[in-house]
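Reviewers asked in the last cycle whether our approach scales beyond single polypeptides. To address this, we selected a multi-component target totalling 788 residues and predicted its structure end to end. The input consisted of the following lines:
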Amino acid sequence: MLVYYRCVRVKDDIKRNAIIEATVSLVNEIGFAASSVSKIAKRADVSPATIYIYFKNKDDLLVSTYVDIKTCLANAIMEDFDSDTPIRDAVFLAGKKLYAYINKHPKLFYFTEQFANSPYTDLVDKDKIEAPFKPMYDRIQEGIDQKIIKDVPFELLFAHLYLPIFNLVNPRLHPNFKATPEIIDISMNMAWDAIKL
Amino acid sequence: MLVYYRCVRVKDDIKRNAIIEATVSLVNEIGFAASSVSKIAKRADVSPATIYIYFKNKDDLLVSTYVDIKTCLANAIMEDFDSDTPIRDAVFLAGKKLYAYINKHPKLFYFTEQFANSPYTDLVDKDKIEAPFKPMYDRIQEGIDQKIIKDVPFELLFAHLYLPIFNLVNPRLHPNFKATPEIIDISMNMAWDAIKL
Amino acid sequence: MLVYYRCVRVKDDIKRNAIIEATVSLVNEIGFAASSVSKIAKRADVSPATIYIYFKNKDDLLVSTYVDIKTCLANAIMEDFDSDTPIRDAVFLAGKKLYAYINKHPKLFYFTEQFANSPYTDLVDKDKIEAPFKPMYDRIQEGIDQKIIKDVPFELLFAHLYLPIFNLVNPRLHPNFKATPEIIDISMNMAWDAIKL
Amino acid sequence: MLVYYRCVRVKDDIKRNAIIEATVSLVNEIGFAASSVSKIAKRADVSPATIYIYFKNKDDLLVSTYVDIKTCLANAIMEDFDSDTPIRDAVFLAGKKLYAYINKHPKLFYFTEQFANSPYTDLVDKDKIEAPFKPMYDRIQEGIDQKIIKDVPFELLFAHLYLPIFNLVNPRLHPNFKATPEIIDISMNMAWDAIKL
DNA sequence: GATGAATGAGCCTTCATTCAT
DNA sequence: GATGAATGAAGGCTCATTCAT
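The resulting structure, written as structure tokens, was:
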């Protein structure tokens, strides 16, 4: 978890990060609905009032936490993205990086999964979150143009490419299943079969 | 919504169903966390105390609602399942039935999606929910044995087969995307490419 | 204080009155701003939540208390009002009844004085409160028509008639002055000089 | 509002006056109870901490504001007071000056009215506030001695003289009534009838 | 002198649940 | 079986005040 905030903020606001980390860890343990502001404050070793210095209200705290994590994930995946890499390799690499990130920061990931299916999601500016993936979108479009990838809506391509990973990797959904690197590799191969022409 | 409970329960307990329907509709409107017992009671036109006659507590109400819906969905998908249907057709038919159900009962579906990523899921007996799918599992295993389908864990097969549909169909996740029957058909074709040998 | 609520409600809602009485006595002791719902609840020997069964919110509690008292005061003053009494006697009698009521229920009176100069007053339906005084208004108008009373706006007449009593009787405004029946009698005589033609 | 503080304090402490003005305007807008120190600070464009440099605490701020205004009002009324003016003229002149001040600084006036009926009043040194009126008291006593004015306690005289003005002029108490100079003149004439022998 | 950040206590309100009827 | 009333606990949030800078 330590690595995470270094990627979001350079300034020293230690307290803001203490609050965000407390939020993530608490939501992971007792769930979204049960995570009250005062409990988060206690875990962050901070007064409830202090939270309202850094965040406008509870919604803002939760949404900010989500956006921070998603931004961080996007950066992790797109880091060193090279437009010259063959499309298949690029797609596979992204999958591996996604898995690596989730594996490294499982709690951050579980938080986003809970968040994404709650009404809070409606408060998020989706475009802002997807912006970093622009180069990837362009690369995929090239693949379509070159008749390497099926000419179907992007939503379909991404759903088949990376959704299985999000799912398989979530222990809440698969208590008796362990997503190993090998499993991810198989999944990516299947995904490639799904999207390739 | 009317059709739904007829498939799960016997007639008389109208009140129980009123409560469950109120739960579903309220969770859809104001979300999981904000749906209190008394609000549900008000919407069901029932005293809060009455809810505790039909359900042990709030957790039980929520979990029961989820299990009811999931059971109903399973029945809808597995209805008229024929072990003699060619595997590819069987798989496609299930996808279509899944889509049809979601399309017919969107609110029931959104409820389960919110529920599935909350800690409440941990209280659910997963085996009981997956039981109705046993014939389908067997059929897929046959496909593997006959070298029609890739020999990979079931989790991978199902993740690639049906997860994209769950995702594409959810307006919360795709506010600007409409999953038409054609889209579903494309998705199933891609899924088949993913799982076929 | 016991007499008071009997005049407002015939039903047995003891609890509502316990809450209202607690409100009045607390506001008298520690003031308007410092009187929190939980303190009122404690004094009424009731859970804070219970207050919200009888009143929509804190505003409603305060406003209802005020309206109850004002209505009660109006009834006390207008009780046995006789349109045939000579105007001067009628006016004096009302002054005496006003004083008698304040003297009997000083705490109710102090509450209304605090209330009347707070922004809460804006929430009160003034017409409803003044309705019981209609016969008195009519009687005064007769006095004007008969050239007994000065032909000036009612507001001026009432301000000169009864405002001094409200003021003199308030120990907050006159810590070292005691408004005796004799004082009130003098005040009424002065008031009569002010309004008579 | 600008004229006001010049009469109370010396030039330099601009900040103190900014705070007091913010207090007055805020109390007028959102009321006494809702006016918190931090809101006042924000309106005065000052840090909450700064307020505690100029005032011991919130009570002190409120009381000081009140005393400032009341002192200013007293000065305005007693300015150019001439002991040789005939008593009736003196009394009328004071009423006019009172009205003029209220009309010029309505917000200052509304603040004092809210304040006067709150428990804060108990913290005020009444004698200090009434001191400037000593010459007026003396003049009235002369009137009594000369058998021009009724020989009744001063409280009664003042209550009948000026209270109606305070009341009539307050839009909170009379939303549909406008106190014009003519109304004030009538009121003063009535008041004179009330106190004259 | 002036401040932004920080805080424990308390605010109003609603919670999940029970119980006498 | 069904309920309205009742509740202690907790919800999110703001308070008056202090302190290091």
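The radius of gyration of chain C is 18 Å. We regard this as preliminary and will revisit it once experimental data from Aim 1 are available.
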